[in-house]
Amino acid sequence: MYRVKEAFYTLQGEGAQAGRAAVFCRFSKCNLWNGRERDRANAVCNFCDTDFVGTDGQNGGVFETAEALAAHIRALWPEGLGKPYVVCTGGEPLLQLDTELIAAFHDANFEVGVETNGTLPAPEGIDWLCVSPKADAEVVITRCDELKLVYPQPLAMPERFIGVIQANHYFLSPMASPSLPEQAADPVKQSNTRKATDYCLANPQWRLTLQMHKIIGID
Ligand SMILES: C[S@@+](CC[C@H](N)C(=O)[O-])C[C@H]1O[C@@H](n2cnc3c(N)ncnc32)[C@H](O)[C@@H]1O
Ligand SMILES: Nc1nc2[nH]cc(C(=O)O)c2c(=O)[nH]1
Ligand code: SF4
Ligand SMILES: [Mg+2]
Q1: CATH code at position 68
Q2: Rounded CA gap, 115 and 92, in Å?
Q3: Sign (positive/negative) of CA torsion 199, 114, 183, 133?
Q4: What does the buried/exposed string (b/e) look like for 192-202 if buried means 16 or more CB atoms within 10 Å of the residue's CB?
Q5: What is the pLDDT of residues 9-51, one digit of tens each?
Q6: Which atom of ligand 3 lies closest to the CA of 119?
Q7: What are 96-146's pLDDT values in tens digits?
Q8: Residues acting as catalytic residues
Q9: pLDDT tens digits for range 163-193
């Protein structure tokens, strides 16, 4: 059984695949925060910008089988066009994504992307793996396509990951305020963008990525 908060067709806003059309499948639940505002300050991950509680979002629901979920996601891709791409996110998708669901996505002709905090082992068969470490949570994934570190995090600064996580791309993503409506002025994000920019200028193995979807006002 799979619990999905919401699913929507949009452009990937972050990282090396930014600008690419994708169906986002946002799984419910996370292992680093229970999603309740009153518990945010005490969570391992306390800057999350996402509501992943329950199954009540757009196209959300409970799916009994991998095939049922893959068919539901497939219906959100424009029929007959391009290479279907699904990005599994959350919440923490690796609490639920298994080899059966990856196989069902592949059978539906999807390429499978994953956005994870890296604290849980990844099943085989993922086509694009993005790891985004959080605070002092132990990362168990040591190889990925992209490492996308939200910056700054005092307990997870970039130096900690060089030589520890092998990636083809190393990105810094400026930390945004957790609960501002999209496109609202975000002075915290502005200041973090300057800090991330300065870090990339001083450490050119890191690249800057921005949350493009928030800038242009899409999901
Ligand atoms: C909501 S998370 C879900 C996937 C997974 N749990 C993770 O943390 O990677 C999706 C992406 O948003 C990023 N993110 C979450 N809150 C953010 C914030 N306040 N500012 C910038 N990026 C944020 C995460 O680091 C991750 O790359
Ligand atoms: N457009 C868009 N791109 C994204 N990249 C990562 C996202 C996420 O929340 O995992 C996200 C998202 O929510 N929307
Ligand atoms: S950013 Fe990811 S790890 Fe952190 S609380 Fe949100 S869903 Fe969980
Ligand atoms: Mg997001």
Answers
A1: 3.20.20.70
A2: 8
A3: negative
A4: bbeebeebbee
A5: 999 999 999 999 999 999 999 999 999 999 999 999 999 999 9
A6: 3
A7: 999 999 999 999 999 999 999 999 999 999 999 999 999 999 999 999 999
A8: 24, 30, 45, 48-50, 115, 213
A9: 999 999 999 999 999 976 666 789 999 999 9
Known binding residues for substrate are 11-13, 26, 89
Number of domains in the chain: 1
Could you tell me which of 19, 18, 14 has the C-alpha nearest to residue 49? 14
Instruction: Decide if 73 contacts 88 (C-beta within 8 A).
Output: no
